[in-house]
Design a protein that fits this description.
Two copies of one chain form a homodimer.
Chain A: H1 7-10, H2 12-20, E1 41-44, E2 47-50, H3 58-70, H4 73-81, H5 115-137, E3 150-154, H6 161-169, E4 179-183, H7 188-196, E5 203-209, H8 215-230, E6 239-244, E7 257-261, H9 274-284, H10 286-302, H11 312-326, E8 331-336, H12 344-356, E9 374-376, H13 388-393, E10 400-405, E11 415-416, E12 419-420, H14 421-438, E13 455-460, H15 465-486, H16 497-511, H17 519-528, H18 535-538
Parallel strand pairs in A: 3-4, 3-5, 5-6, 6-7, 8-9, 8-10, 10-13
Antiparallel strand pairs in A: 1-2, 2-13, 11-12
Helix pairs in contact in A: 2-3, 4-15, 5-9, 6-9, 6-12, 7-8, 9-10, 10-15, 11-15, 12-15
Amino acid sequence: MTGEHSILATAPAAAILRQLAKQPYDLTAEGALFGRIPRYVCDNGPFRLLYATERIDEQTLAALQALADECQIIDQFKAMRRGAVLNKIDGYASENRQVLHTACRDIFTAEPAEPKATAQAKAELAKLKSFLEEVATGAVSAPGGKQFTTMLHVGIGGSDLGPRAITEALRAYCLPGRRARFIANVDPDDTVRTLAETDLAHTLVCIVSKSGTTLETRANEQLVRERLQATGLDPGQHCLAITGQGSPMDNPANYLRSFYMYDYIGGRYSGASMVGAVTLGFVIGYQGLLDFLRGAAAIDWLAEEADMRKNLPLLMALLGIWNHNFLDMATLAVLPYSQALHRFPAHLQQCDMESSGKAITTEGAAVGHKTGPVVWGEPGTNGQHAFYQLLHQGTEIVPAEFIGFLRSQYSEDCQVDGSTSQQKLIANMLAQTLALAMGKADGNPNRHFFGNRPSRLLIADRLTPYVMGALLAIYEAKIVMQGFCWGINSFDQEGVQLGKVLASRILDSLANERATPGGVEKDLLAQALCPPKLEETWT
Amino acid sequence: MTGEHSILATAPAAAILRQLAKQPYDLTAEGALFGRIPRYVCDNGPFRLLYATERIDEQTLAALQALADECQIIDQFKAMRRGAVLNKIDGYASENRQVLHTACRDIFTAEPAEPKATAQAKAELAKLKSFLEEVATGAVSAPGGKQFTTMLHVGIGGSDLGPRAITEALRAYCLPGRRARFIANVDPDDTVRTLAETDLAHTLVCIVSKSGTTLETRANEQLVRERLQATGLDPGQHCLAITGQGSPMDNPANYLRSFYMYDYIGGRYSGASMVGAVTLGFVIGYQGLLDFLRGAAAIDWLAEEADMRKNLPLLMALLGIWNHNFLDMATLAVLPYSQALHRFPAHLQQCDMESSGKAITTEGAAVGHKTGPVVWGEPGTNGQHAFYQLLHQGTEIVPAEFIGFLRSQYSEDCQVDGSTSQQKLIANMLAQTLALAMGKADGNPNRHFFGNRPSRLLIADRLTPYVMGALLAIYEAKIVMQGFCWGINSFDQEGVQLGKVLASRILDSLANERATPGGVEKDLLAQALCPPKLEETWT
């Protein structure tokens, strides 16, 4: 590496923040939250962010704004949306690509930020619209002329987690009789058990791989095709390809339809491209899909605002950097108070940690400061009965991001003890943010709550397709903005290569006894492949 | 609090470990792994632990063994199993209970460690066996004399995560036609959407709450009962109660059957008690349930071994403490290479973080050192395509615990590129442990891998009921052993109380407009309850 270069070491605002971090705002002081809550609110699109329960004050916010300006976060964000080649490391071999995931939803204005990519997105959307109409009218139908009811989505990583999180979140909006299933893991049990629960005759299969060569997806595609054939079905009449133009999967002989993804959209940012759109459009319909894209597009434009107090993703990005880099908190808990978002933390885990898990700058120097935190979470109130003990009384300080909605999706509810379940859900979320911030002194040390544990609250009226699109775009923008601040390339993933190379070598030894592995691999295989077989003697 | 008392500050072994931590074993050095892999292996029951890829050597292991001895980990573990009152804080009000989750599977020997609790467990198992026979013969049947096919499990936290993780893991062993569904969240959408996919006429409902007063579970029970009635069914003929003797739920008028849980088993350790056993027994049958208990019991006895190199849970506990307390790693990733274990990390998150998220000793003093890490994870190979970028190249060092099995559960597979999916799965897991340890130098800084990122590998032949029982018991033992080393009470959860109190106050204001909340709560409600309503204008 070419020495160390740290924007957080050289930016004047960072020096101020380091000073301020020695005595951050004390949320546990008498009256500390008085009058503060209305002051620290930001509305963008359908979302409101409440951040009075962060350890910040006017000085901190001013310094964070200065840091954002010094790092040119918004300038870079605008450049990204307009087609700048930001997926690169200067002076070294790298992907060297544009970053245009926002273009695929920038379809609601006459003047898109990057017209060429948006035109390509519109072309794919037009293909999808017409395909969905054919499915609806029966022009494309299952054997015997019956309707297709199920979309089986086969992908992994970016081709799975985003689509899965989004589609699960919007299951309440499924067209009658429509549903989606997902297969990702190369674990054959994943595929076998999903197939056992799927009526293949009425199932379309959406195979997603940009390169067309992803090992897991190819293996699962083959398992699915074998099963289709064994059931007397023609795979070519069931399988759709979502892939790069010209990839090995871009072959009309093998697929009912192909939809294209482009190399300027990274896998983990591809939820609103054809990667997510085909399955989502099938289950909630094309109009629902458009609503989803519209929500995302609205946020993308609002995120160009330079004033952090009016820019919700920028505000979240900077509060995250304050907690992580200056207050030294290693993780971020994302806690949706919505069961529909149960896979959203897993999606964020990829989108955030694969983007920000970097140790060199875009110039190839060591970063010299911490980059991405570990992101994790489960829905509330479930989490309250699980790991919140550690949030309140543990020795690790975990900043928390709560996500909640005033109204439920199905509007079915019941009253117990004078309140509805939805009211209980909201009340619990609000209570947690206060408990974490304020704490509580107690003479019994085991009932003492430290407080000063920062959190923020992202709230909207109801989780609709539009709101889900906005939520996705908020996090995507937040993540790339943090990357701009840290001076890293948030768009590549060289860190996954070594494991692939080693796996391929070990696989050669495993699958082909003639191949002789090297010393360490040989030792590892010898020890790993013979665990105890006590089991049979016991059961 | 009464001053600070840190076993890790006073134990002589801890001083040695702090010295050793300044230069931990370098896994990236030329030949560092040579000859090491066979030396660092531990077999217990059906599992083998490979730990050569941890940053330890003979000196580290000797010091960790000394620490275990000085902290009397195994003595305390034995005392726990024999009924010592360990759930307490000396000198302060506390739960003051025994800790006997191991007793409920200690049923395969004539001399159980704590005969009274084991006798109570046997009595409940006998009730369950006879109930399951009645269901099988049709003596207990759905309306019209049909078989019950589905168990709808309603609980939250310890009454949900363990049973869910275990039952999901063993879905391959379900009796024909049998399945389980789960409801936990107070989010009404969770219940509504699960009920919409459940054929209630053929469904038994297992309601689990030790106190019989858990708010979420009561609300969900009511939603389920209302739906049963609306469908013309008699809730009393469908609902089972799993509760403490004498709780408000212990009422034969309202339930088809009751099974008891006892206050000496904490919720997060209750997976092998009636809390998990009723649902698991229903889906995989009583013999499968016994296999599961037998696997757990086998580990419980093996875990009494004082030599850490022969005691797998103790070894995992001490390696965890080495990484967390001495090498300063804030989190632990648990990465099962088995889709069947997809909810196991969520269970561990509760079992570990609720047990170890503590800041005072059992004497009520500040601990003076770190206690539980943040535990998180997703199945591989999915995770490889998601957050592994950060594991390999991020600035947070994340120790990883891999769990894998040589054979798949269903034995269905396919060959792609000359190997099966199961072989690909195993090869990838082994490759990751090597890649994290060894790293790789590269002239391109973006392709440089640091290495020296510790991991361990827990491997068994196949994930059967017996093996799942053993896996559960390994982690339960590991967690309590870490607690004994840290000097904390791993069995209470006072940290969840403040949120409950505040939630109840906020709920009063939300549900009852006459109730006037205080200043901060009023401000928070005013701001939180009116997010933007742009949505309607857009969609």
